[in-house]
Design a protein that fits this description.
The protein is built from three helices and no strands. It is mainly α. It is elongated, with a radius of gyration of 17 Å. 16% of the residues are buried.
């Protein structure tokens, strides 16, 4: 399997989301093709055959590559580093 960088995954997810939105707004042969192409790209990048699984795998890969963040309490004590949480999911 390829090991895409977080930046490459984010770019592919963004392109897929844009393609889905455009195709949902006004479907044409070009928008359908772009949606299919970007879905295929995500599948190749994540090593799966289904775009829903590719989205899930991409999210998991981004979660594991997220930088750890330490927080500071009101008393000024630092907590152990944690991974930031991601809100929202990509459209299918």
């Amino acid at each position: 399997m390829l090991h895409p960088t977080p930046g490459d995954l984010r770019a592919a997810l963004s392109c897929y989301a844009d393609a889905v939105i455009e195709d949902e707004r006004h479907s044409t042969p070009d928008t359908v093709r772009r949606r299919e192409d970007t879905a295929y790209t995500l599948c190749v990048m994540t090593g799966v055959n289904d775009v829903r699984q590719a989205l899930s795998t991409a999210d998991a890969l981004l979660r594991t590559s997220a930088p750890r963040v330490a927080t500071v309490s009101k008393e000024g004590r630092r907590s152990a580093p944690t991974r930031p949480t991601r809100t929202g999911t990509a459209a299918v």
